[in-house]
Every structure is written in structure tokens, then in C-alpha cells.
Amino acid sequence: MLDFLDFDEKLLRRPADSNPELRNTVMNIIDDVKKRGDEALFDYAARFDGKIESLFISRDEIEKARDAVPDDLKKAIDMAMCNIRRFHEAEMPQGETVETAEGVVCSRRIVPISRCGLYVPGGTAPLVSTVLMLAVPASIAGCREIMLATPAKNGNVDPAILYAASVSGVTSILAVGGAHAIAAMAYGTESVKRCDKIFGPGNSFVAEAKKIVSEDTAIDMVAGPSEVMVVIDRTSNPVYAASDLLSQAEHGRDSQSMLVIRADDRAEAEAIYGKVYEAVNAELDQIGRHEFMLPSLSHSYAFPVYSDEEALNVVNSYAPEHLIINTVNADALSEGVENAGSVFIGPYSPESAGDYASGTNHTLPTSGWAISSSGVSVDSFIKKITVQKLTRKGLGNIAGAILRLSEAEGLRAHGYAVEVRLNDK
Prior knowledge:
about 425 residues; alpha/beta; Rossmann fold; six-stranded parallel beta sheet; five-stranded parallel beta sheet; 16 helices; 14 strands; about 45% helix; about 15% strand; globular
């Protein structure tokens, strides 16, 4: 459990989250939904989550859910939504207009994706926060239709999910989860409109389904098992570090919680590791959820490093979904981070703050994709369309470059489209 090992890049490999058998199963589900539509959705819902009477949640059900949610939980949801909205409103781009040459004006228009599908898991825990993380930026972007898909367990969707959906801009709620929900959003059925882009995390079946439908429908990312990397030194509180490791481990058996110990020598690193290990065991006894935490910790590791450069090499090589830096020089160390989904700095910045209420988005790249990808933001829900308007003089000003380049590429018609205009008296 959380073995103390010298750094080796091979140890940064994530637990396998896909296999040929899984892919074949998911492919069959997707093909069935494409063929049988609504009928298949009812059948799979009954098989995996319990029989449902309707594919969509009615307004009456949503109103009843609002009454069923305790006031203190409503206040927590409202506060989190307020912070998420405040941060994401600042992300909204305005577009640009530039005169690149005299008489040549280029600009970009910001256009929302018309119809987006949001997937919210409802398996081991109802992820109320994910509703906010997806629906709020979609609403800010101006998406016309925001459909949320989440499983109805024994015919019911968690009231808190319905309340969060009702206050964050969701326009319809599909009471179906799993790979069949992804198929419905990607290809449509008699009752489900095809979505232009699909967002959200899920289990291995959902992740595999998103991979498959991405050939035909845009997706945000393939979100694999959740992960955290915690960087500490002798000034760090080992109890805080242990709590951060466990808060990620409880997501699921295939989650990963990695520890990086910045020390002057091995003896110091071992001493720090011992304190964290002790704290992990104590907190495990107190918190429970061992069925998720122990398997997760079995493929999680602690790495000793003896310089800031070495610490950054481990971080940037792993490219964690969540990165917590709680060292004496945390701010300076964070400046060297190139690959991470979201960074948490200092002793009072637990990853759970970003998961719920600080304002940043918790839908982040996993499995090393932080090397080249970003998390969900308002940008994920918009398109940027370039526009250009040239006067006759403006076209003449750049005609020489167009003609020479089209000649070099052997594309004569491109040059002719310019000549015919400039030669027209």
C-alpha cells in the first residue's frame, strides 16, 4: 500500500482502463441503441439500474426534488454554483478584429455549440458537483439545448442532482446512464435528440463508449480513472498529505494517489514517508470506504526526490489530473509545472476545494493527457469562426503573395480567383 520506491517512469503507467472484451461489449450496446432506439434504452435501463416509466424527467419530478433537498444542501449547491459561475464568466472570450493589411479586416466570432449532452455518473456516488461543472459553463457559453444524462436508480434520480440541474441551466434530463446513454446522445433515438458534443466523466463503459462515438460526435475528452499527485517536504503536515491521498483514492478501485517527497537525503525522505504512511492508516480506520481505497492505494507510490528539478521531472512526466504542492517553496515550484490538469498550492488548498466550490472546473484530463490537453471550460462549449472582409484595394495589396504561393503549390484556380477580380474593370 503506497509503496516507497525510487522513481522509475514505468511506475507512472496508469491502471488499464480498457480491453478488447470491454470494447466489444460497448460496441454491441451502441449498435443496439442505433438499431432499436428508445426500446433499447428502456431495456438497458431496466437491466442495469432498474425499470423506468419515462426516458425524461418531468417538470413535476424536478419540483418535487427541489422540495426534497435539505436547505443546507441547497445553500451549499448555490454557493458552489456562484463561485463556479464567477470564475467561468471571466473565461468568456470576446473575439478579435484586426486589420492585417490596408483594406483587409479579419475577425473571429464566438458562437456557442447549439446542443450539448452532459453525462453525470450516478454509480458509487451521485456526482452533484459534476452537474454544476458542466452545466454552468455551457449556460455561460449560451448553448441553446443542454441535455443532462444520468442513471435513475430503481426509477429515481437523486433529488440533489435534479436540483443542481434546475438551477444551473439544464434544459432536459435523460434518466438513463451507461454506454447506452452515450450512444443515445451521439446518434439520437425517437425521443433523444442527437447532441453536437458530449461532456462528462464516467466508468470504464462510459469512457469506452465516448472513445467509440468520438469518430462521429465531438467529445470533451476521454476521462479515465481519477488521480492526484501530492508534493510535500519536511515542512508539510503529514495528516494533510494523507487526507489528500485518500480523498482521491475513494473515487474508485482504479484511481491513483501518488506522493512525491522532496528531501535532502534518503533518510529524511523515509522519515517523512513514515509519518504519512502512519496518517494514511489512521485515517483509513476512521473514514472507511476500504473497498475503493485499498485497491487504489495498491497501485499508488511514494517517490523520494532530492532537488526541485527532480520533483518537477516526476510531476511533468506523470502529468497528473490534480497536483497538490505543499512545500516551503510551493509558489516557486508551481511555476515549473508544465503538465497538470489543475494545481493546488499550499497547506489550505485541498483537491476537494476544486472538486466542489473554489470555482475552477473539476472535469480534467487524466491518464497523462494533461501533457497536451486542458480541462473543461467555457471554451469547450463554443466555436470560434473566423471572418474576413477585403476591399478591392485590400485584395490588391496581398495579391502578389497569393499568386506566388498558389503557383508554388500548383493550385492555378486559387490564383485565378484573385486575377479575375482585379482584372474586372
